[in-house]
Structures are given as structure tokens and as C-alpha cells.
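TEACHING EXERCISE
Course module: macromolecular assemblies
Task: Read the component lines below, then compare them to the predicted structure of the full complex.
Student: A.B.
Group: 4
Components provided:
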Amino acid sequence: MTRSEENYIKTIFHLGGSDSVPIATNAIAEQMETKPSSVTDMAKKLADKGLVHYKKYQGVSLTEVGIKTALSIIRKHRLWEVFLVKKLDFTWDEVHEVAEQLEHIKSEKLIDKIDELLDFPKYDPHGDPIPSKDGKFMIRDKELLSDLEVNAIGVCVGVKDTSAPFLKFLDKNGIALGKTIQVLDKEDFDQSLHIKIDTSELHISHQIASNLYVKKND
Amino acid sequence: MTRSEENYIKTIFHLGGSDSVPIATNAIAEQMETKPSSVTDMAKKLADKGLVHYKKYQGVSLTEVGIKTALSIIRKHRLWEVFLVKKLDFTWDEVHEVAEQLEHIKSEKLIDKIDELLDFPKYDPHGDPIPSKDGKFMIRDKELLSDLEVNAIGVCVGVKDTSAPFLKFLDKNGIALGKTIQVLDKEDFDQSLHIKIDTSELHISHQIASNLYVKKND
DNA sequence: ATTTATTTTTAGACAAAACTAAAAATTTGT
DNA sequence: ACAAATTTTTAGTTTTGTCTAAAAATAAAT
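Instructor-supplied answer key:
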């Protein structure tokens, strides 16, 4: 597997191509910041290798082997992210870029040892689940903060947007995984939220709230 | 810098091209298991980028910038080797292959943090010095075990050959960095050595002895 | 249901990094 | 010093992954 092939497989997985729902050429091209014609070329190659299903004009979806491959890459990516945060004091907005490189290192032993060193973590620094060696992972039940009703309380368990600007905003406002958040009030006008986090109160836009996952206390 | 460019720079450095002694196209090709014509192509490209001095038919040597680049790659390679051994329990015969990949990861912060995590090691698992961030490193005075006179005592400080078979042989015979070795006798016929290591005695060929570095006790 | 718009694919080209085969320069040997 | 051997370079291909421009298929719209 070349680096490029791995990146296509990963992108198709993230776009939902694991459920035999075919993903459009254009969608893949946009996500990867490349041209649709390049995607077509790669789709053919990956189909030849048995990693994707591909019918002309019908989009691309992952085969069983393709899904296994995608999970293996995602496992590596997320384990490296945990390593960077836990062992090297990276912040959660710094890890993605470096993990994009580290995920392509070819050594079964290396990633298993990293897993062990970290004591087999189940979630990465953004709250996303880490597939196990055999490709299984726990999908934690969670909902968007923006979907909570007024007065509901939840624990922050993940972020949808993992971009550095968003994560830095969260840091600046004391929002981190594990924090308890209560919805104090919702503005009808713009869906913005008044929330309580620890002891302090905060007013956040719908944009922010709809990119934060919480696990509701019931 | 592409991966391939980095590999050429590193090879030229290892062949001695840092002392403005030009290295022959053929020598580089042989070392890299590629063809001389490929080396010529790359020599031109690296010269254009100001990393090497190159005159047709005269071989290749590193510029100041080229040397700095080489030291940076070697620093990464050796730090990763230490990491693999100290933190992930790799053996010294397993590290090279993986470090060859890890050395190309592009992140200043990553390698500095790894350096810090390891407490700024000065030597890699084979006894080779690790260049500092500013490209300086300690060349330890050492000599080949095969050059010691009978009865001399030295501490094992490095290996010349770093191939897995050689390193495994050493492991099997209890030879490791830091061990004290005494030359008990030399066979005139084949230059083989009788040595004492810890409490046990051992008979090793000249081949072995000429790939082991020791620091003499005087 | 045709026309229009969009999406996708083909065809041809390009850059990087490798290769082969042949030509040119250098080195070696007598 | 000159022929022979070796080394190095050139020229032309190949592969991988990308691109542009044009053609073909599908989807949308009146």
C-alpha cells in the first residue's frame, strides 16, 4: 500500500463508504483537495486491488478488506495522537498534522508497543474511538450539545470539528473532554447557548454548540 | 525535501562526502542499491538546490547546508532508535528498519520532545553519537577490538556492522554496550581472538572482532 | 420530455524517481 | 602514449500520481 492509496481509503471511510453506500467521486475529490479525474484513476486502481467496489458513474465504497485497511490506518492515527498528547505534551490542536504522517509508518510491532505503552486507550484526544487490533471499537452514545434541552447536564466526550482554531477556542474557554456542561438557556433568535462549565458561565454560538459532543446525565 | 533526496544526502554523508572529499557516483549507487544513472540525475537536482557540490565526472560532496541537513536526519534516526529500545523494548537489531521510516517525519517539535523524553541521549543503541540540535556531536575515542594487544582490557562502546545477524550473534554471546572485554590471546593463523567477557571466555573470529568498537582502559 | 446543468470519465501531458542502453569521459595497463 | 577497461553521463522509457481539457453519462429543470 502506498501512502496515497492509504489516504484515499481513509477518506472514503470517513465519508461513510464503509456501509456499501457509494461515495461520489466529487465528494472524495473535494475532501482530499484534489481533482475528480485523479479520484477516478485511483478508484480503478483500488478496485483492481480489491479494496473498493467501483462501477463507473456509481461512486466508490469499501470492500471488507478495504474497511479492515481503513480501520488499521485510523487505529494508528488515533494511537499516535494519544501518544503525542500523553507522552510528549502536545495539545489537542497540534496532533492531527503529525499523526497524518505517523499513521503511514509500516511496523506492526511499533503500533502494538505504542498501544501497550499508552495502556490500550479506547479514545483519542478528540474523543473518537480507537479501533482495536481486530478492527472493533466502541461507539460511545453521545449527542451534540446543541441538541440538549434547557437545564440538561452532560459531560463533554468529543468534538466534531477537530480544526486547530476550534480546539484553541475551546482551550481558551476552559472546555475540555471530561468537563461537565449545563445548558442554562437557549436564545430562540440565533440558537446560541448560555452554559455553565465548572463554576463559570459562558455564552456560545450555535456553531460552537453543534460541534461539541456530550454524554447526557440522566 | 523529498524522502528520496533525504536518503541521498544521508548516504553521501555516511560515505564521507562531508569533508569536501567527493564521493563517486558508483559508490553512492552501490550503497543505495540503485543505478549510477539515477545517482547522476539526483546529483544534478541536489546541486541545483544547493545541497551538494557536483562537477561532471568528479563526484559529489555535501555543501554546508547539505551537511546540516544530513546531521538533522541522522539525529532523528538515532533518537528514534533510542526511543524504540528504551521506551518500546525493541532489541538493537530491530530498530534500524523502523527508524529509516521515522527519520523522515517532518516536525521539529516532535523530535525535540522525543529528545527530551529520552533525557537527551548522547549515543544510539549501537554506540553511534547523536548530533545535537545545532549539529554538534561527540566523537568518542574508540578502537576496533581486533586492534587491541593481548591482555588489554576495554569497554564495548559500539559496533561497526549494524546488521541484524551480527547484532543477534552478539546478543547470543552476551556481548552488549558497556560490557568489559579482555583480550586473552590472539591466534596468529587467522587473527581470531580468545576474549573474556564478564566471567565467561569466548573464541571469536577476526570478522567479529573487527566490527566491535571498544574504549581501552589505560 | 427535451433541454440544460452537473458530474464523471477519458485522453493526453507532466513531474518525480527510477530504469536500460548507448555514448562520452576518465582511468588503467602495458 | 595509446589502447583497453572502467566509470559516468546522456537519451529515451516506465511507473505513480497528479493535472487540464474535452467527451460522455447522469441528474435537474422548465
